[in-house]
Amino acid sequence: MRILITNDDGINAPGLAVLHAIAKDLAGPAGEVWTVAPAFEQSGVGHCISYAHPTLISEMAPRRWAAEGSPADCVLAGLYDILPDKPDLVLSGVNAGNNAGENVMYSGTIGGAMEAALQGVPAIALSQFLGPETKDLANPFESAAAHGAATVRALLDTAVWDKDHDYRLFYNVNFPPTTAANTKAPRIASQGRRGKTAFGIEAQLSPSGRRFLWVTGHPQQVDTGAGTDVGENMRGHISITPMRADLTAYDALDDLKARFS
């Protein structure tokens, strides 16, 4: 198996090392793992591509490349410039922090997997929910490291990959904020919503008097209910959410057609 891996935390991020180990396990002795990851952190860039300017790409080691661009740029670079042939699978992550709930919409980790799916390649995004139980672990990615390969293998063996669909499915996996030993079996979950919490803006003045804006975060340990990604993670389960790049609100189509008729 030939696997392309990327992330949004950068080429030197510890989560990428965890993902490389997962990919090596999946690829097997005769397989190949190729890394194309951002040279610098790209958290929050979503599905951004560097359409208006070129992307500098550098070979760091055999099958290991860094790109001054987004995760989606990295996937495009891997597919059309770096890899000798199309990969069998693209893995994006392991992100330092959850990409569940509304975080999905901002995530570069999701953006990398989404671009792979749009290019017709099976893709999975993987993220490690962090919290009080993980902050003192020697490896905060312990849950993902221990259960990542088995989770991806189960998806490859049992999930629908609908290669003929205009917008192919890809999968969003979040590992719970707990130890490997306390991690519970995967649950299929919808995307949750943390209610009124959201990103915001805080203004600050620099010593020179210039005005800067900082994006402010919001609490992550908010239970969005059983059956949702955040909710299942908070209950100790690995969450698996099927996704597509198609943002059409199908539930509103018929009503809107009737209103405009």
CATH superfamily: Survival protein SurE-like phosphatase/nucleotidase
Give unreliable regions as ranges.
none
What class do helices, strands and sheet pairing give? alpha/beta
Q: Work out the oligomeric state of the chains in this entry.
A: single chain
User: Largest sheet, if any?
Assistant: 9 strands, mixed
Strand content: 15-25%
Number of domains: 1
Distance between the termini: 52 Å
Q: Just give the CATH class.
A: Alpha Beta
Supply the CATH architecture.
3-Layer(aba) Sandwich
> Can you write the helix and strand succession as a string?
EHEEEHEHEHEEEEHEH
Mean pLDDT: 97
Query: How many beta-strand elements?
Result: 11
**CATH fold-level name:** Stationary-phase Survival Protein Sure Homolog, Chain: A
Give Rg in angstroms: 19 Å
How would you describe the overall organization of this protein?
The chain has 261 residues and is of the alpha/beta class. It has one domain: Survival protein SurE-like phosphatase/nucleotidase (Stationary-phase Survival Protein Sure Homolog, Chain: A), CATH 3.40.1210.10. It is 27% helix and 25% strand. Strand 6, helix 4 and strand 7 form a beta-alpha-beta unit. Helix 1 packs parallel to helix 4 and helix 2 runs parallel beside helix 3. The longest helix is centred in the middle third of the chain and has 17 residues. The N and C termini lie far apart (52 Å). Its main location: cytoplasm. Nucleotidase that shows phosphatase activity on nucleoside 5'-monophosphates. InterPro entries: SurE, SurE-like_Pase/nucleotidase, SurE-like_sf.
